[in-house]
Structures are given as C-alpha cells and as structure tokens.
Amino acid sequence: MNKLLLAFCLFIGFGTFCSCSSDDEETNNPDMIWDLAPINLKITPVDQQGNYILLDFDDVKVTAEWRGNVYEKDSNASDFPAPPTRAYLAKMYGLLSYDTCLVFGELDRELDYTNEKIVINWGDEYKSDTIVFNHKLTWVKGNKSYKVPESIFDIKLNGKPVDYKMRVVKTKK
C-alpha cells in the first residue's frame, strides 16, 4: 500500500511539475494589474549663480500653455471629482508650485505624446521657455513570464535635451 501511495504521489508531483510554464514564454500575467504613475514635469527656476528663485515669482502671473489651454500657477485646473473607480487616473492640475519648483501635470502615462509643446510664460520681465516632449509606453519582457511597462521619454527645454526635472536659468529681458 505504501509503494502504491508513493508511486501515486510521484506521478502527481511529476505531472504538476511538467504543467508549470517556463520563464521563456511571453504571456501576460492576467492577474497583474498595472497602475502607472502619471507624468509630472518639474521646472526649477534658478538665477545665474544657481540659487532657487521661485519665490521671486510669487506676485507674477506665471502660466503654462498646452494644447490651447492656459494654466495659471497654483490655480487648480481640475476641480471636478474623479470617477468612481479603483484605477489611478491622471488628474490635470495644471501648473503648481512646490517648494523650489513648478510642477506641470498630471499627464496620463498610458498615452503616447508626440512633439507636445508647453510654453511657460514667466511674466513681462522674463523670457518664456518652451518644453517639447515625446513619450511612448511600450511593453517589454520582464524577468518573469509576463511583460512589464516601459516609458520612453524625449524632453527638450528651449531645444536642448533634459530630463523631466528641469533647471531653468532665468535672466531678465
């Protein structure tokens, strides 16, 4: 009886082992839900010496223009309630000031953006800055048998490549 039980357990164990998928398969994990963090562009204005000067713009009307909309600094561009869902949805706040920088966003990371142009206007005394960015979301093979998201960014500030955390040297006109 013990030999029969041992043979049965070995047969079941071998069958279970053989039915497992390998890491070489490129199937998506149907149980995995991806919440992708939204895109926020950070703009830090500094003077010629590298000192933070965002406070110099407290009384200045700073705006960001994107897709025909004008977002004034610290005016919440999205006062409507979020839809009832468990997924994280990007919510456009416009242009907000945090500590030493301005943050423009939130942009939906699941969308592709091609040659998107944002113009930051720093009031009458300073030249405006132009940000042009591209973003593409792709799914690549991860270390497991399912694919993982990968964001590809290309961001330029006044024609020069930068990352999403930009330092802008501001001089008066």
Please name the defining characteristics of this protein.
four-stranded mixed β-sheet; 10 strands; mainly beta; six-stranded antiparallel β-sheet; 173 residues; 10% helix; 1 helix
Report the portion of residues in β strands.
35-45%
Shape summary: elongated
Rg? 25 Å
The major pleated sheet works out as:
6 strands, antiparallel
Helix/strand order, N-terminal first: HEEEEEEEEEE
Number of helices: 1
The largest beta-sheet arranges its strands as 3-2-6-7-8-9
End-to-end C-alpha gap:
94 Å
Number of strands: 10
Compute the average pLDDT: 81
In terms of per-residue confidence, which ranges show pLDDT below 50 for 5 or more consecutive residues? 22-27
Q: Helix amount, in percent?
A: 10-25%
Structural class estimated from helices and strands: mainly beta
How would you characterize this protein structure?
- This protein has 173 residues and is mainly β.
- The chain has one helix at 2-19, and strands at residues 39-46, 63-66, 69-72, 94-98, 101-107, 113-121, 129-141, 147-157, 160-162, 165-169.
Short synopsis of the structure:
This protein has 173 residues and is mostly beta strands.
Spell out the blueprint of helices and strands:
Blueprint: H1 2-19, E1 39-46, E2 63-66, E3 69-72, E4 94-98, E5 101-107, E6 113-121, E7 129-141, E8 147-157, E9 160-162, E10 165-169
Parallel strand pairs: 1-10
Antiparallel strand pairs: 1-5, 2-3, 2-6, 4-5, 6-7, 7-8, 8-9
